[in-house]
Amino acid sequence: xxxxxxxxxxxxxxxxxxxxxxxxxxxxxxxxxxxxxxxxxxxxxxxxxxxxxxxxxxxxxxxxxxxxxxxxxxxxxxxxxxxxxxxxxxxxxxxxxxxxxxxxxxxxxxxxxxxxxxxxxxxxxxxxxxxxxxxxxxxxxxxxxxxxxxxxxxxxxxxxxxxxxxxxxxxxxxxxxxxxxxxxxxxxxxxxxxxxxxxxxxxxxxxxxxxxxxxxxxxxxxxxxxxxxxxxxxxxxxxxxxxxxxxxxxxxxxxxxxxxxxxxxxxxxxxxxxxxxxxxxxxxxxxxxxxxxxxxxxxxxxxxxxxxxxxxxxxxxxxxxxxxxxxxxxxxxxxxxxxxxxxxxxxxxxxxxxxxxxxxxxxxxxxxxxxxxxxxxxxxxxxxxxxxxxxxxxxxxxxxxxxxxxxxxxxxxxxxxxxxxxxxxxxxxxxxxxxxxxxxxxxxxxxxxxxxxxxxxxxxxxxxxxxxxxxxxxxxxxxxxxxxxxxxxxxxxxxxxxxxxxxxxxxxxxxxxxxxxxxxxxxxxxxxxxxxxxxxxxxxxxxxxxxxxxxxxxxxxxxxxxxxxxxxxxxxxxxxxxxxxxxxxxxxxxxxxxxxxxxxxxxxxxxxxxxx
Length: 612
Prior knowledge:
By secondary structure, this protein is of the alpha+beta class.
């Protein structure tokens, strides 16, 4: 009980501090410059000059997954929707750094420093623009961690699982229908995908994808058209695709193609790994890896006690620990520009279970764009980033990170704090006061139900600040159940295609190396849990990879136009981006977050048997 009381006492202090910052903001000069870009400078690699210890490498690399909820245990990238699952199975699913920096479990291809696909990985890629085809050729020695050969069918079967109407994976998106025959298969009109062929038979190593049109994004890992992991057909063929997500092949006894294989899983708590003897690439140097779920509140104490070598990944809510962690003598900080962001999103429609399309309902409670914009103008997000970003986070202006260079639109306007403007927007839209609170334009009561997952005191403070500001606006806003939601419960609610419980929520996305946002915000996207859809949105998303988009100036313009349009709709509004940073025990050697580190796990070694 004492711990809970202390926690809430700290939250109260933090909320008061934010309220003071907001009250002092001048609506005519709202920009807090230090809240709009990171001030901390970090290197993307750690250069340890000490020699590797063979005795130490025979020991265990202990990694922490800081999270207040158990991981769900989904090992297959096709069905993974939670970053926690991606992290817990990273040694088996990903040979490259991208699984840590962008959440992309790319285990087929190697990439260069721009995330462009190059030869040398588990498979090579050859694109033929004239023929509108992509040839994927697996290595002759490509095998799964149980010794089974990786075949052409394994590469093709991933598309069968992704596009099957009964798989219900959020990874499927409408851009994949550029593959000939995939749309007919997805709609149940065909039993196979006609546009995927096997020049040397299903047991060979070569697959050819034939496209309706050829998109420039195909050159990059993580594009929204071509999937870049394989699926073990022989291992899974007797499991109906609808039952695959909960099968032992995915949950209890998964197999992998990465540098490590799973040796033990404790449901919701930990995974343990040993080298995969069938891995094609550089053999791992460290003989044991253990990844343990650790409560967020134990972040600094777990590092101070030297229980863990490094966190597998960090949510920006842990940035509050940075001032303490950077002073730990046994750890050094590594980091670079990340692709993950936090956002506020509104429920504005539903998903049609038959067509699997998102349908926006302009008459829904949150369907009025004035209401959504007003709720954003009521928040001083720059002040939040300044106070709680610790130099690592900033308030972004768009859902495309500066990580993506020329595709990022620096001119897209932010929703800067302006309570007068917020009130005017509601007045103009007919949200009149009836007593203490505003009503909907149709006269019905307006109660806005907000959800945010359980986390740290700073997260709690953020949620309470939002509620405070929206109430100042005259909106009867409340946390569902009066407190943050357990993470898995929150997302299972949002994944319901016609849920009415959550009106607005605080969430996060880690974005693929190729920035086309169809997979997150497209009409067919399962990740589009707010169900925003419009003709203009479809048009701009499609333009990013149409025939004209081979002209890069045209493609860049489509990205920039989309960012400004999508921001104006205020259905999903980013409120925090952060440096991708990791506290690293100084006995680690070979740690490098560069995109072209295609042997991330195999390059790691230890210089001491004990954490220093």
